[in-house]
Amino acid sequence: MRLVAEFTTEPFVGEGSPPAHAAETLRVVEQAGLPFDFGPFGTSLSGERDVLLPVVADVLATALAHGATRVSLQVARADD
Predict the structure, then answer these.
(1) Which strands make up the sheet holding 36-39, listed edge to edge?
(2) Model-level pTM?
(3) What is the pLDDT of residue 80?
(4) What pLDDT does residue 74 have?
(5) How many other C-beta atoms can be found within 10 angstroms of the C-beta atom of residue 59?
(6) How far is CA 44 from CA 25, 56, in A?
(7) Could you tell me the CATH number of the domain that includes residue 11?
(8) Which among 74, 69, 72, 60 has a CA at the least distance from the CA of 24?
(9) Quick check: 33 and 54 in contact, CB under 8 A?
(10) Domain span including residue 40
(11) CA distance 66 to 61
(12) pLDDT of residue 78
């Protein structure tokens, strides 16, 4: 089953470099090798369920470990 995950880490920081919680979750996503889109209001990535779900767990742990106060997450089946 193919999934798409979208997440946003907070607190949001306007201009300048992304905060540590955003930069470190980007590193996790890049290392996973899945297609992704990193933007100022969130990140989306897609992949097979067995690959994507552990990456999402790593994203959550990494964001919280690097100062995120909230992580909003949506996961949907890509074939719906």
Answers:
(1) 36-39, 42-48, 2-10, 70-77
(2) 0.90
(3) 64
(4) 97
(5) 25
(6) 11, 11
(7) 3.30.70.930
(8) 60
(9) no
(10) 2-77
(11) 9
(12) 92
Provide the number of structural domains found in the chain.
1
Helices (H), 1-80: 20-32, 49-65
Q: Which residues contact 72 (CB under 8 A, 6 or more apart)?
A: 7, 8, 10, 42
Place of tokens 């089946």: 77
Residues contacting residue 48 through CB under 8 Å, at least 6 positions apart? 1, 2, 3
pLDDT digits (tens, 9 = 90+) for 18-77: 889 999 999 999 999 999 998 878 899 999 999 999 999 999 999 999 999 999 999 999
pLDDT band at 7 (very low <50, low <70, confident <90, very high): very high
